[in-house]
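Example 4.3 (complexes with small molecules)
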Amino acid sequence: MAKYEIIGGKTLNGSVTISGAKNAAVAILPAAILVAGKCRIENVPDISDVRILLDILRDMGAEICQPEVGVVEIDSSNVKSTHPNPELVRKMRASYYLMGSLLSRFGQANVALPGGCNFASRPIDQHIKGFIALGADVEETDDYVNLKPGAEGLHGNRVSLDVVSVGATMNIIMASCLLPGQTVIENAAKEPHIVDLANFLNTMGANISGAGTDTVKVRGVEKLQGGTYAIIPDQIEAGTYLAAVAAAGGNVLVQNVIPKHMECITSKLQEMGAKIYNYDDSIRIVSEGRLRGTTVKTRPYPGFPTDMQAQICVCMTLADGISRLTESVYETRFFGYCTELTSMGADILINGKTAIVSGREKLRGNTVRARDLRAGAALVIAGLAAESTTYVENINYIERGYERIVEKLTALGAQIRRVED
Ligand code: EPU
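Answer. The structure with EPU bound is encoded below.
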């Protein structure tokens, strides 16, 4: 099994270009099933979750070509199957978007329950609630979700989510796109990738308004036609590089970002003592690697993202004083990495939903294991900031969501390499 070897203690300098957003790409690619014609999708990150999704779509009959780096052309006209390959579906989380897109296009879907990072119990009851409101008959087994039209057929409707869910919001948007009538999603999530999905679908001819607010309206249309769309930059990848510079020290221009999407993260890093300079589509961060403790609570967008919890925790382990980090989306997320950080010398006490982090002068290198994508990214940051050598194992998790991370960090002066056991 491959692992990363990181010789820590080097500052990071230069510039890094952020890839397209993973969590937008993994929704937009299955949404291409809704389109009768060729979609050209640009700024697609080359990560393993995207490769698995493309394999699933190809296996279902979609014609896919990748004419240049970062560009995927999908023609779903010949897709006939409503039963995607379960072995592939179980390899990732976002395969649940096949339920919404197949239901909308074919009126039925038979999709295995998704896999992916299991850092918490991750129910899909709100997705199912939405499909039922849209008139679907839902049969759930331990392994599968089977959707077909109920007695009154599929139609737009009002859906009020009981919890703010990114996945349910996007799945209901997809499911309602081609149904007759209007769908109104209340208590919708507002993440940038929801706006991106709506913009993609609207470019192809859908009628979606309100994405980015807590009420999204979808007026069903008869069909969507092909077109070209570029995915937004990845907020969390950018945040991860910013946190890496904050912790390890250095001066880096993070390019291809939407600074507005980054405010929830940059404001915290500033509070911790890093200097942040915003430009039109880039952010410069300057840090001496010595930070001040702070308080962070994760929340749905525009709050501080749960997907940055682990990375900011590493910054806290090296900050002066005591920091408090409270998780309000996935309570068990701390367990994916705090023990590993403690083995590197961090002082973290978990008290329910809150981690109390007492900053230390240094972290020391060790052999640690990634247990999910963001936990893995945090261990890489810890390795960069630590004294001596760190080995990060289970890097398949990290490569699900970070494009060319070793190359990008090496270009910033980090000493990191991928080694085979
Ligand atoms: N929830 C339910 N029922 C549902 C759906 C969600 O109770 O039907 C709960 C969850 O248990 C959680 C909260 O609602 O407590 C929010 O979950 P959400 O549905 O928003 O998460 P998700 O759509 O499964 C996406 C990202 C995650 C990210 C979360 C929160 C994708 C593919 N995944 O997951 O990203 O943590 O939103 O922002 O978009 C990652 O990129 O590392 C990652 C895990």
